[in-house]
Fold this sequence. Notes:
Shape of chain B: globular
Number of helices of chain B: 9
Strand order of the largest sheet of chain B: 6-7-8-3-9-10-12-11
Mean pLDDT of chain A: 94
Radius of gyration of chain B: 20 Å
Largest interface: A-B, 35 and 35 residues
Largest sheet of chain A: 5 strands, parallel
Low-confidence stretches of chain A: none
Number of strands of chain B: 12
Oligomer: heterodimer
Structural class of chain A: alpha/beta
Structural class of chain B: alpha/beta
Strand order of the largest sheet of chain A: 6-7-8-3-9
Helix content of chain A: 25-40%
Strand content of chain B: 25-35%
Strand content of chain A: 15-25%
Low-confidence stretches of chain B: none
Mean pLDDT of chain B: 91
Distance between the termini of chain B: 24 Å
Distance between the termini of chain A: 24 Å
Radius of gyration of chain A: 16 Å
Amino acid sequence: MLLEADGIGFRYGVGPWVFRGLDIAVDAGEVVGLLGPSGCGKTTVARVLAGHERPREGRVLFDGAPLPRSGYCPVQLVSQHPEHAVNPRWRMREVASEGWRVDEGTMEMLGIQAEWLERYSNELSGGELQRFCVARALSPLTRVLIADEMTTMLDAITQAQLWRAVREAVDRRGLGVLVVSHERSLIDALCDRVVALG
Amino acid sequence: MSDLLDIVDVSISFTRYEAGLRRRTLRVINGLSVDVRRGEVLAVIGSSGSGKSLLAHAVLGILPGNAHLSGSMRFVGEELTPERQRRARGREIALVPQAVTSLDPLMRVGPQVRWGAPVNGNGSQAEAQRRVFARYGLTPEVERSFPAQLSGGMTRRVLLSTAVVSGASLIIADEPTPGLDPEALAETMRHLRELADENKGVMLITHDIETAVTIADRIAVFYAGTAVEVCPAHDFLPDGAALRHPYTRALWRALPRNGLAPVAGAQPSYDDLPDGCAFRARCDRATSACAATRPALRSVRGGMVACIHAA
């Protein structure tokens, strides 16, 4: 397994456990769904798997070893709210070259227009911004993508466009994907198998 | 002409100053016509940034100062002037806001809702609030709670209460559902439907087409700041074959259960709207005639559509 979580648990300080004893694995070229109602801890799971939080118990392994503490993380997270995930003082050109130099093909597949590159994030809609966040995360160095309600705020066509681009990376180079969503129909359309939470 | 809200050929533009005092005009709503009738739920769907929320703000008269509005908006037969909007806002037209952060975090929930009730002969404001809370299964403990102590579903019911307690005849619900689990979602929809069945008009702004179809009477589809189709909700069922506009059909085919089929490109930017049909660059039926003039809404098979090819 490329990404493996063994009995992970998380809580803030001495607060109640958000989740405990959770096992999740995502292999290369595999699309796994994580389904659960709102408030059951899906986002926290996503953050732990992508290394944004460290599990309070259990462990997260990438290729059999802990996630790297420095350098590019091969597990990348795309969150629900792109407004909070880009530097507001940068032009989108800088955002798009933050992790890698986003290539023409990726931009076209995601419908990113050349004139958007000169704008700041507050001059783009949520759907336009999220296209950049997906483009940024689809670096060749990314081996597993954690998509936390990635298209929940978007219209159906933009949603389909973004997933087409992710699917292409799965088929072409064996990207592993965890689709975190509360939406059964989306999970059914995308995933090879499903893990239920809560 | 509608008995409640009638919007005819409304355009909204923003003037923005950029570096070097360069002035730029963004036309965000463009020749939009739509109406809401008593006793119905009108769902407004469409792409992110197609002007759905902005229309709600225009009706309520809460657009920012640099917005310029043209066209006609009439409410119960009267022109919606700024003065008329001031009188209607919160009394005859009420908003169910999208953000759960719309509640004052430092004020108990009961008094916040109470404040929206009309002062008239039907008992005190507190009684009005308690009636609405009882209707939505909100206990007296909820009344004494602070917003942060409520679950997501309860918060939605409180936000709905603020609109219902006013007794408004037009309720505008702006994306009331994101992040709700299926149970809370169904409950919110049932409540909106009930309001329409009490002869109020409900405008439900959403991008959740599958849910909208289950409770709406009619659906208005927005693209690039205009309504490209307004049709009976049942035209979306069972397979969308009755839909008229190529964009609406594409939207339907893009739903997860209908194959998640994308369309290349993106909605045009507001500072660079093309002449003619705004969807034509992404449309498989586009011809040179589509570039000539912006198609007007016209009647086709019991619905309205802005496409010269629709039949």
